[in-house]
Design goal:
The protein is mainly α. The protein has one domain: Rhodopsin 7-helix transmembrane proteins (Rhopdopsin 7-helix transmembrane proteins). The protein contains 9 helices and 2 strands; from the N terminus they run βαααααβαααα. It has helices spanning 24-54, 61-90, 96-130, 132-138, 141-165, 184-221, 228-267, 277-301, 303-313; strands at 4-6, 179-181. Strands 1-2 form a two-stranded parallel ribbon. Helix 1 crosses helix 9 (303-313). The longest helix has 40 residues, at 228-267. The relative contact order is 0.14. Belongs to the G-protein coupled receptor 1 family.
Amino acid sequence: MNLTAVNQSDVCQEYWCPERSVSLSVYVILYVAAAAVSLLTVCGNLLVIISVSHFKQLHTPANILILSLAVCDLLVGVFVMPFHLSWLIESCWISGSVMCSVFNFVTFQATSVSVHTVALIAVDRFLALSSPFLYSEKISPTVICIAALFNWLFSLFYNFTLLYVNGNFADVTCPGECLYIVDEVSSLIDLIVVFLMPCTLIIILYTHVFVIAKKHATAIRALQVHNRMESSKNRVRDKSERKAALALGILVIVFLLCLLPYYIFSLTNFLKDDSLSNVINSVLILFYLNSSINPLIYALLYPWFKKSVKIILTLKVLNTDSSLMNVLSLSS
């Protein structure tokens, strides 16, 4: 899904790392900025993971999917972002062949899991708004946990097969570069499985979600006065579902905006032009930065995340029965 794709016929070409072309002060600033972004990504997503895992009130289907996405973003912050940013700063891969293999595999895995998790979020919100009674009866945290686990296992099998079939575990080392081998058929399959199918599903379902939310809001305003008491209950429940759909909709839209630039290059066959490899690697930064942006979105849109972070940072999370604390009291 990323980096420099090559054909098996020209796996390694002669490559020399260019000498550093920036001053020492700029060089240090670039590395400090890279470390700060990576640290922000790791810490932010760790707080999301701890919050959803620890507090029982947050064990809802939608939050389970947020947890799965946060784990992907954590992997990006630990195994992908630092090495990719270092590669861009040095204009050369300096981390060795073993880390190159780990880097490639984790990148493929995190990408496919995150895209399919966002697709599951779209399915979850569509079912919650279109069939609320069916959703409350059939869609439990356990069901979503199984779906998320299947997503991870499918991606693990899919990415291992994709890389193995193309000979990426043959320990081919290219000094100064971190390549993965992929043929045109595999590239097309990956484009369909990881981008076209899930993103089409996301766009279609979220279009329906916002249409349904608008219809619900119109219906609530049209309720009769003599049903005011019951309408109040319906209004609270429906407002909650629409608010969740809006918050997750923002998450989905930001995700697609970060993902699209890279795949626009793919769809227009720009990836076959080696002269654009630096541009492509730069475009990938935007996608990786989505892993840093997601916790900020949670902080802005979810009162429960703000409260749970406060509890974690003040170490109240270590108290007995802290998992039973009310972290939803600030929710409107």
